[in-house]
Amino acid sequence: MNKAREFDQSVVAELRALLGDRVSVSAAVREHHGKDESYFPYAPPDAVVFPHSTGEVRDVAGICRRHRVPMIPFGVGTSLEGHILAVQGGVSIDLSQMDKVVAVHEADLDAVVQAGVTRKQLNEYIKHTGLFFPVDPGADATIGGMAATRASGTNAVRYGTMRENVIALKVVLADGRILQTQQRAKKSAAGYDLTRLFVGSEGTLGIITEITVRLYPVQEAMSAAVCAFDSVDGCTHTVIQTIQAGVPVARCDIVCDKTIAAINKYKKTNYRVAPTLFFEFHGSKASVVEQAETVQAIARDNGGMDFQWATRPEERTQLWDARHNAYFACLQIRPGSRAVSTDVCVPISRLAECVHETMEDVKDYIAPVPLLGHVGDGNFHLMLLVDPARPEETELAKQFNKRLVERAIRMEGTCTGEHGIGLGKQESLRTELGNDVIDVMRGIKRLFDPDNLMNPGKVVPMA
Amino acid sequence: MNKAREFDQSVVAELRALLGDRVSVSAAVREHHGKDESYFPYAPPDAVVFPHSTGEVRDVAGICRRHRVPMIPFGVGTSLEGHILAVQGGVSIDLSQMDKVVAVHEADLDAVVQAGVTRKQLNEYIKHTGLFFPVDPGADATIGGMAATRASGTNAVRYGTMRENVIALKVVLADGRILQTQQRAKKSAAGYDLTRLFVGSEGTLGIITEITVRLYPVQEAMSAAVCAFDSVDGCTHTVIQTIQAGVPVARCDIVCDKTIAAINKYKKTNYRVAPTLFFEFHGSKASVVEQAETVQAIARDNGGMDFQWATRPEERTQLWDARHNAYFACLQIRPGSRAVSTDVCVPISRLAECVHETMEDVKDYIAPVPLLGHVGDGNFHLMLLVDPARPEETELAKQFNKRLVERAIRMEGTCTGEHGIGLGKQESLRTELGNDVIDVMRGIKRLFDPDNLMNPGKVVPMA
Question: Which fold has domain A221-328?
Fold first, then answer.
C-alpha cells in the first residue's frame, strides 16, 4: 500500500498561489524531507511547503484534500520510525517556520507555542522566568513533533512524557476544521480527551499547529552525577531499587561500556569505560543531598563506584550533552552505518531480566551493540548498526528486534516506550494489543481521515 | 431525547438465564440505581444486574444490544451530574460485586483492580505494602467510576487525576468486543491513546471492567495542617503564591466560613469559623518542614493565622474526613435540600478574581452558598442549595451556574474540573469548546456505539 500515488502538478501551482516562494519542489529540499533518523530508505515528498500560520496549514490541507494528495507534517526530521517519510508521495508540511512562542503564562506555569518551536528554543526563551520545559528526547525536536509522537526522554521518570505535559492542542483536521481541544485550565473533565487522542497520533488524525505545555519551576538545587558499575546487572538493579524506594530522581539513564567508549571518542570526554548510570536530582539543597545519599548507598550495594558530580549548570549541560550525543557517537562505531533502534519499555521489576536476556541474545551480532536508555521508566534502546547497502543486515537486525519486542510483551511491556509506531512497529503493535485494538484504531483513523490523506501508511495499515 | 424507550420484558428473562438471582426489577433496587448525588430527578432503570466478571458484562451487553436496550454502568452512585440516571430506561449494570483486587505489583508501583473496587478498599488492601493510591474525590467511589468520570480531588495537585494515574483499562464495547487498551509498562508510544479516550468517557463509549492504576510509596513524613484566614481572598492569594513558588503540596483545599460552620455542626468538630485552607505535605522529614515553613510564611503575608497541625495518621484521616463530609454537612444548612454543585477550574492566576466575582454574584442567593474546592489546581465548587419541590429554585441555581461557567471560560478555564459532563454540562461543553469539537465527539460516540445504547443522553446529545 505504501506506493506513491500519482501527483497532479497543478497542486504546486495552487500551493504557490497561496504561499509564494514558500513552496519547494527542488530535489535537495524534497530529499531532506524524505528521511529521518531511522534506517528506512528515503521517500521524498512531491513538494514541500512552509506555512506560517494555522490558517495557512488549513488552506494547504484544503488544496491537498481537493486533489487527493497525502499531507505529511514535518518538524525537524529526528523521528526514528520513518514517521515523516512520504511513502505515498504528497506534500510535506514543514512547520519549522511556525516558530513563535505565542504566550508564556509564568504565573500559571504554562506556555503556548507554535508547532515549530523546538524544546531548546522554548527553554532559552523562558530562561529568565525561572521556569523550564522538562520533556527532553535528546534531539532538539520541535514541540509539535514531540506531541505528535508522544515523546519522552531523560526527564520523564520525574516529570512525565508529552502525554502528561500537553495541556491543549490546536489541530487542523483533514476536512479543514480547526479544533482547540481544551482550555488552559490545568485539569478538566470536559468530554472525551481529544488532547490525548492527538498526542501520539503521528500526524495521522490531524496536523498539530499549536501546543499549550506545562512548565516547572527550576529547583533550588539541580545536580547531575555519573556512576560506573562493574556490570550492566549492577546498573539495572540499582535503578530498580531506586525507583522502588520512591526516590524522586529527575533523570536516570543507562549507557553501556560500548556507548561510553563511543561518547569518549566522539566528544573527547574521558568517562571511565564501564556500564554507567547518569543521574540527576532536583529539589531543595537538603533534599538533593538526601536523594543522592540514598542512591549512592544503593549503587554501592550493587557494585557502583563513587559518584562523579556535575553541579554547575554548564557542567550539567555538558554531561547531558554527552549523553544526548550517544546516538551519533555510536553510529561512528561503524562509520557509514545506520541504526535499527529498539525501544521496548517493561515494568521496572522485569528490567534487569529483560536487559540481561537481550544482551545474551545480541552477543553474536555482526557489530558491537550499544545499550542506552531511560531505565528509570523501564525503557531502553539497543542500536543495531547496519550497512544500508546490505539489506540482509537490516533484516537480521529486525529479527533481533522482533525477538526483543516479543520478550518485552511477554513481560507485560510495550514495543515502543517513546519512538512511536511509524512505519516500523505496525506488526509489533498488533502483537502487543491484538486485532480488536488495531481495528478500533483503524476506525478512529477512518473517522478523522476518511480519504486516508493524513500521513498515510503510518501507525495502522488502512488499505 | 431523554425519554425512556419501550422495554421488552423478555430481556429480564434472558438476563436471569445468564445471572440467576443477580438480576433485580424491584422498585427499591431500581430507584437506588436511578439517582446519584446530583439535583436531577430520579430516573430508574428497568432492571439492574450484578455481574461478577468481564465475560458476564460482555454477555449482558450482548442481550441489551440484541434488544436495543440502553446499558448504564453503575459503581456506587456518587456522581454529581446525573451520569448514572437511566434517562432512557434500560439496564443498570452495577459493577460493585466486581470487587476483586486482581494483582498488586509492589515492585512496579501498580495494581490491577476490577471496576467495583473502591478507592478506600484498595488502600486498605495495600496498606502493608507501604504504597498508596492517591486519587481521592472525597466519596468512596469505585475505581471504575472514577476512571469513567476522570475523577480527581484533593491529591490531584501533586499526584494528578485519573488521567495521569490509569495505566491501562479493560473495556467491553457495545458490540461485545473486549479491549485491553495498553500493557503494564509505565509509558508507551504504541498507537492512539485508547486508555485516555475511555478515561472520562462516562460509560458512553464502553464499559470499563478492569483498571491498572499507579501506586506511590507512602512518604517518610505526611503532615496535614489547617490555616484560617480573615478573608477568602487571603486564601486564594496564598494558594496562588504557593503553587507559583513550586512548593510540591500534596493537598491544598479551600473551605469557606459557612462550610466550616456546617462541618463543625455535622462532625462535632471545632474548627475556627473562618475561610480556611487545608494543606497536606508529603516528603522526607526535612522536606516537609521546609515546605510547611515556606507556605506558613506565604500564608502570614496574606492574613493567615498559625497552622493547626495533624501529623499522626489518625489525626490526618480525621481532618480529611471532616473535609470530605463538607458536602453532606452543607446539605444540612437547609435540611431536605439538594445541591446544584458547580465545578469550574481556571488557570491559577485567575483563581482569586474568579472566586471573588463569583462570591459577589451569589451574595443575594436564597440560601447561604458554601464554597469549597481543590484550589491548588484552580478548581472550586459552590453548593447552590435548592428545594427539590420547587423547580424554580433549581432554575435560579442553574442560572447562577451558567454565569459562573461563562466567567470561567472567559478566564480560559473549564466548565468542569472533575465532575464531568453527564446530563448537566452539555450546553456548557458546547460553550467551552465549540460546535466543531462537539461534532467530533459525536463522531467518536457514533463510532463506538452506533445504536446509542451505552449510557445514552450523556456527554454529547445524539438526537
Answer: Alpha-Beta Plaits (3.30.70)
